[in-house]
Structure prediction request, 165 residues.
Amino acid sequence: MEHWRSKTYTFHLSCGECTITLPDVAYHLGLRTHGEPVGGCLHDFQTWYQQLTWEYVDELLVSKPPHESRHMPLSTTDPATFRQYTRCYIMQLIGGYLMTNKSNNQVHIRWLLLLADFRRCNGLSWGSIVLAWTYQSLCHAAHCEPTYIAECISLLVSWIYHRIP
Prediction:
């Protein structure tokens, strides 16, 4: 990552400087880039983590063995079950596509809290957090020379294809 500048969040190329912007995220991924920001902190994290985490995961996600929960049964008409499978799918999108980590098979539990209320979730600026995650990953790659960049690779590849001459 010799052409990424962490101080300015830009690529320095022979044709000039360029960077990924929120309109780029909206164009390439179709994500909302306006609305309530995704962020903040969980004020009572220790209490939540110790007492409620697994109950919450069990309530919000499907608590079946992995081989049974890969596909939602077509006969599902129960709204609660449908919401659980929807949350699982969104968590898979977050951890496996939008905000990957180096393991590419784990999703941080912080994202689950955002999926508790679908109305609030719909109003969040997901594009902003994907862009911030991508910037952070590129900065980390520029300084640490990792073998794998944890970011939204499809955003980066699509952006490069359309923007860099």
Remarks:
- The radius of gyration is 18 Å.
- The first helix runs from residue 22 to 29.
- The longest strand covers residues 10-13.
